[in-house]
Amino acid sequence: MHVVRKTSYDQDMRLFAHRGVAFWYGVLAIAALLAPLALNTYYLSQLTFVCVYAVAGAGLMLLTGYAGQVSLGHAAFLAAGAYTEAILQAHGIPFVLSLPAAAAVAAALGLAVGIPALRLTGIYLAVATLAFAFIVEEILARWESVTRGNFGIAVDTLAIGSLRFDAEWKFFYLALGVLVATLLAVRNLLRTKTGRALVALRDSTIAAQSLGVHLAWYKTAAFGLSAGLTGLAGALYAHKIAFISPEQFTIMVSVELLVMVVVGGLGSLHGAVFGAAFIVALPQAIVFAKGVLGISGSGQAAVDAGVFGLLLLLFMLYEPQGLYGRWVKVRYYLEVFPFYRRATFRRQKTYARTERLQ
Amino acid sequence: MSLLAIDNLSLHFGGVRAVEDVSFRVEPQEVFTVIGPNGAGKTSIFNLISRFYDANAGRIAFEGRDITAIAPHEVAQRGIARTFQNVELFEHASVLENLLLGRHVRFRTRLPFELLFTPSVRAEERAHREKVEEVIDFLDLQHYRDTRTGSLPYGVRKVVELGRALASGPKLLLLDEPSSGLNNEETEEMSFWIEDITQELGIAVLMIEHDMALVREVSDRVLAINYGRIIAAGDVESVQAHPEVVRAYLGE
Ligand SMILES: Nc1ncnc2c1ncn2[C@@H]1O[C@H](COP(=O)(O)OP(=O)(O)O)[C@@H](O)[C@H]1O
Ligand SMILES: [Mg+2]
Predict the structure, then answer these.
(1) Are A27 and A131 contained in the same domain?
(2) Are residues A32 and A61 in the same domain?
(3) What pTM was computed for the model?
(4) For FRET with B92, which of B21, B28, B146, B194 sits at 20 to 30 Å CA-CA?
(5) ipTM of this complex > 0.85?
(6) What does the alpha-carbon distance between residue A309 and residue A282 come to, in Å, rounded to a whole number?
(7) Which of residues 184-203 of A touch B (CB under 8 A)?
(8) Do A283 and A307 contact (CB within 8 A), yes or no?
(9) Does the distance separating the beta carbons of A192 and B117 come in below 8 Å?
(10) Same domain assignment for residues A43 and A30
(11) Which sign, positive or negative, has the C-alpha torsion B93, A113, A59, A275?
């Protein structure tokens, strides 16, 4: 186990707690950069999906994992980003402008939901965002003059100037770059005033307010930022799948995104990335399992939905810290072996807080 | 001019008159204590000052300015900080982060710069960290700096909550039952801190407290309420000896 000796205040502001951590992130960065050499096109493509999903995951993690607001409507923000990107590109707007525009449109939509949702929490907020996503899905299908309705839009190969992202490895590097930038920005936010305020509102709204945290402003900002990042992912997603239609942004996608942050581990950015990898790997694992068990392949979508739902439930009940939490425990076990105490991570009983204002 | 002026304040929950026509003044640097049996309306007065509840009647003024209708988050900006009867810490955050949240209203950083963690943001984080360290030293919290507050013993949590309120640099501190849940030793310590807070830091304290030994030790003036109404006010001895107060505590 590594015990950190602290000698300056800046140490607590660092991105990496100590050199060992920085080292492993370096290894990870090199591995990611070398991935196109080691992986065939199919696996590289899956890894690209992980990056794209993780960007959306970071967005939803900010809202659900840190600000404590559940959203069952994030497919709508993904769609907003994807359609904005596709439509702007079709109009010849360069990517360096259309990408921020995609994020901005989604963020604006997020603010539009966030403000009326201010008074809602928990299950009510989940239902409201769910309803919102249905409306957006309907609009995408009906507003044919702009979205081409159920015909969908074919999305051209991405190009920045003369640089065309026509090979899988090129697009992978782009997605990786966007992911790293996203994670850095969110991480920065979390170690400053705004990030702390979001966590404060989640843990105790009244205490946060008594310290001067402007509830409406921060909750709305969380929605806007979260939606914006999801829109960013949406723009990449549109290029990755090259064809978008309302069917790609159904409630199932919203659930998938939520499963991603819950299974990954609420309240940790690592969790968003772990969750993204999980979401991408799961359908393949299901196909594989069905092959092994000799179940013939009808209704993959229904099986996926069932497995997602079940996992969501199991993780919430038995591993609320998600895959990341599980990983932390395993790592700790290995570090202190053979002195592991089972009680180390036992959840502490929290004090009753029924009489919140008394 | 009084620091805090409460005039004819009333708060009703349906038929329950939680606060009824209450008036009092808190002067700079004094310890003003509100006593009264459970359900008397003490916490409700705090929640009115914090602007969690809207008063049905009356006026609250701080430093001569009316704060009866400001937003809850503006109360801290004016210089009023508080603790809660049941300890409201941010349980998933460390002691350090809780205390930094105490400085929330003092931060001037803006979202776009925070996303980039610019040098100006870093400089400000550092400056506030120094202020927080002063509070940590003042309350002897060095050991717990990086501990998640959810895993701290109750007594330490109360101190952290006090520290968080102090970190905001208030002119008036509202303490809701600072000794509840503390053992004798911790209560003793709490009384020293309250004295230091008023005498060394020059902060006025408005406190709700049941432990009469603590009340006697630190209070300059005492107000007793029952069923939302003032039944006695003055120095500790006279309020404690007041027949209505005796009756309220013995129960009728
Ligand atoms: N949010 C609320 N809704 C309804 N009644 C309340 C509420 N808060 C307090 N009360 C009532 O107001 C009265 C005063 O409560 P409170 O101020 O908490 O008392 P104290 O702090 O003196 O024990 C009690 O009768 C209590 O039940
Ligand atoms: Mg009370």
Answers:
(1) no
(2) no
(3) 0.89
(4) B194
(5) yes
(6) 13
(7) 185, 188-189, 191-197, 199-200, 202-203
(8) no
(9) yes
(10) no
(11) positive
Q: Mark whether A180 and A239 lie in a shared domain.
A: yes
Q: Which residues are within 8 A (CB) of B103 and not within 5 positions of it... i.e. 6 or more apart?
A: B128, B131, B132, B167, B168, B169
The segments of chain A whose pLDDT lies below 70 read 1-4, 294-301, 332-358
Q: Are residues A175 and A153 in the same domain?
A: yes
Cα angle B47, A203, B169 (rounded to 5 degrees) comes to: 55
Calpha distance A182→A176 (Å, rounded): 10
pLDDT (tens digit per residue) in B189-207: 999 999 999 999 999 999 9
Q: Is residue A278 part of a domain?
A: yes
Neighbouring C-alpha atoms within 13 Å toward the C-beta of B101: 35
**Residues of A with Cβ-Cβ distance to B107 under 8 angstroms:** 193
**Token reading at B219:** 């209070």
- Which residues, numbered 205 to 264 in chain A, qualify as contacts with chain B under a Cβ-Cβ cut-off of 8 Å? 206-215, 221
Alpha helix segments (H runs only) across chain B: 42-49, 72-78, 95-102, 111-116, 119-138, 154-167, 184-199, 212-218, 236-241, 243-250
- Structural domain boundaries enclosing A16: 1-38
Domain count, chain A: 2
Lookup result for tokens 């702390």: A196
Distance CA(A246)–CA(A152), nearest Å, equals 7
Relative to beta strand A153-154, strand B4-13 is unpaired
Helix (H) or strand (E) holding A170: helix A168-190
> Which protein residues are within 6 Å of ligand 1, measured from CB?
A 357-358; B 13, 16, 18, 36, 38-44
Is any Cβ of chain B less than 8 angstroms from the Cβ of A39? no
